[in-house]
Amino acid sequence: MDCLEDLGVCVNAAQAPLLARQVAIIGGGYAGIAAAVKLAELGVISTVFEAGKSLGGRARRIEYRGHNLDNGQHILSGAYSELLRMMALVKVPHNAYLRVPLTLMFGMPPEFLMRVANLPKPLHMAIALLTARGLNWREGFAAIRLMQALKACKFKLDTKLTVADLLKMHHQPPKLIRYLWQPLTISALNTPLETASAQVFANVLRDALDGSRAASDLILPKVDLSALFPEPAAVWLAAHGSQVRLGERVSGIEKNSAGFVLSYGQFQETFAQVIMAIAPHQLTALQSRDSGIQQLISASTGHFAYEPITTIYLAFPPSSRSLNAPMMGRIIGTVQWFFDRNALIDRPGLNFNLNPDMHSDLHPELHIYAGVVSASGPHEHWPLDELAAVALRELREWLPDLVEPLWHKVVHEKRATFACTPGLKRPSTQTAVPGLTLAGDYVACDYPATLEAAVRNGCRAAELTFKQL
Ligand SMILES: Cc1cc2nc3c(=O)[nH]c(=O)nc-3n(C[C@H](O)[C@H](O)[C@H](O)COP(=O)(O)OP(=O)(O)OC[C@H]3O[C@@H](n4cnc5c(N)ncnc54)[C@H](O)[C@@H]3O)c2cc1C
């Protein structure tokens, strides 16, 4: 059994504090950890079972050649209200992430550059669109008109519409689609325009672009994704009497008069209530003789299709040239975004403010770029080394004097998110089995598969569990 020793978290059942463990949470991703934190806020002790060696699930640290990377480069939005609230609650320091006004930059020098100004709503977005380099006034106004039309219908659309349908109905010019709507759809929904749900996209636009200026901010982690929330949360949970157990895969779940009996390894333990915070395809591995639980598992897993995300890390000597921004997009080619991980380290010449006291988990002894390819495409069938070579070639279009990388690492997450298609039925938090609740990014909510969806659904599962105790 593993211990988060450096975090001071007890993860050994034998060392558990003598407190009633009322609720079990299966899964230590952002959803499961958020559920545990919310329960603790409500005064309920819980035990989180995480099969992996680290916390975070699809947003976790991976180690490579002694360096902390992530299973995939992530970005957060200022509209992630519940995740940001929880991060503050568990005392994640502000310098664990870089918060900047939304800036979309394509090309170097930029062929498209849109920067949200420090102005009150709605001026911040209107000015950003009208002054964006690469768009003319007509194109800027077309974007504003679409936002106004969405506002007029209170962001409620025909659930059968795709984003492509929506853009066509509102006569969006090709350049606007190429530089704004397409990248935003792929980044937020990880689903191509032609098959992405217009309703879910509208929900994202409502909160991020039609909310306050701060809600449109871009948030880039400076620490790895396990350290960004789940690990500080585990420390906070331990101080509140809850437990996080790593390396504990729950294999079975049965119901009896006392509640639910969970099997893990050679052990069994009974809990009054259970929150299942694992991805739908992982639910099917849970064994149960209870017909209600079996039905719940098959009903919750059946109809999801998935989209991949691939992250290509390229490591260079520290003296290598930087990009002009921490995150830059590409329209043509394979890689959609390059992240300059070292741009999150304080450096002169970069146009955003950094806290001089910040601690960064990045590695100044290397200069690491992360290239991201979202959603499916031909790259999925290429050998990983070939994909790394393509990413290097594309990065060199901007930085031609880059030397050969010291190493590369490609992480291909096959089921990164569910495909966010129109009318997709997502299961609700509440199930037909009293005491058994679902959490996770795939559970019904306004948002696509994101950290915020995971956290909101974790909180909702905790509130429901609390009501049923
Ligand atoms: C490469 C990539 C890039 C992404 N980029 C972004 C981004 O930029 N912004 C954003 O907001 N979102 C992004 N996402 C999506 C985001 O990571 C997910 O929506 C979120 O992490 C899902 O959290 P979750 O807790 O619902 O599920 P998961 O993270 O899948 O957590 C489930 C956990 O349950 C554990 N588990 C499974 N079975 C068992 C069992 N039987 N017993 C015990 N434990 C078990 C798993 O090990 C896992 O830790 C990205 C995802 C990927 C993969």
Describe the structure.
The longest helix is centred in the last third of the chain and has 18 residues, at 451-468. A hairpin with a 2-residue loop joins strand 12 (259-264) and strand 13 (267-271). This protein is of the alpha+beta class and 469 residues long. It has three domains: 5-60 and 226-304 and 425-468, FAD/NAD(P)-binding domain (3-Layer(bba) Sandwich), CATH 3.50.50; 67-75 and 306-418, Polyamine Oxidase, Chain A, domain 2 (Alpha-Beta Complex); 102-216, no CATH class. The chain is globular. It has a five-stranded parallel β-sheet, covered by helices on one side. Strands 16-17-18-15-19 form a five-stranded antiparallel β-sheet. Helix 1 (30-41) packs across helix 13 (451-468). It has helices at 30-41, 81-89, 123-130, 137-152, 163-169, 174-189, 198-208, 225-228, 230-239, 280-283, 291-301, 384-396, 451-468, and strands at residues 23-26, 46-50, 61-64, 67-70, 76-77, 97-100, 103-106, 112-115, 218-221, 243-246, 250-256, 259-264, 267-271, 273-276, 306-316, 327-329, 337-340, 367-374, 407-418, 436-438. The structure holds flavin-adenine dinucleotide. The site of flavin-adenine dinucleotide has 38 residues, from helix 1, strand 2, strand 15, strand 19 and helix 13.
